[in-house]
Amino acid sequence: MDFFSAMDISATGLITQRYRMNVASENLANIDSTRTATGQPYRRKQVVLEAIGQYYEPFPQLMGMLGGARVSAIVEDQTPFRQVNRPGHPDADKNGNVLMPNVNAVLEMADIMSATRAYEANINAFTAAKSMITKSWELSK
């Protein structure tokens, strides 16, 4: 594995973690959206990631798969909607109950924090690879 491959892998990590943060932010922004274009409440979205790349031939058992990750899909969470009693709400049924999105603010904040930490780790790995390239160029002079 060369330094540029390490930077490419880190770059894919940055992209995937940005997607995770964006989707979690969208979920939080729609936590009270009781009606979408379909007429239903907003449904929580999740990012599905997959590994990409190939095995490093000389030492596959040590190095594992190289290549990074990518977003394979953004799917809707099929857990049931929350039901809240709000008699004056325009979307309330005859009993005063309103279907609310299946978004949990605590879970979304945890996802954002996790994605932020992973993003920072990828930045650190990218910076380390860049530093090694710079040092190797300096040594080759």
**Average pLDDT figure:** 88
Query: In order across it, which strands form the biggest sheet?
Result: 1-4
Residue share in helices? 40-55%
Gross geometry:
elongated
How much of the sequence lies in strands comes to 15-25%
Structural class of the secondary elements? alpha+beta
What is the number of domains?
A: 1
The number of helical elements comes to: 3
DSSP E strands, number: 6
Order of helices and strands: HEEHEEEEH
Low-confidence stretches: none
Rg, Å, rounded: 22 Å
Largest sheet properties:
2 strands, antiparallel
Distance between the termini: 23 Å
Write the layout of secondary structure elements.
Layout: H1 3-29, E1 45-51, E2 54-55, H2 60-63, E3 65-66, E4 69-76, E5 82-85, E6 97-100, H3 105-140
Antiparallel strand pairs: 1-4, 2-3, 5-6
Kindly summarize this structure in a few lines.
By secondary structure, the chain is of the alpha+beta class. It contains 3 helices and 6 strands, in the order H-E-E-H-E-E-E-E-H. It has one domain (3-77, 103-140).
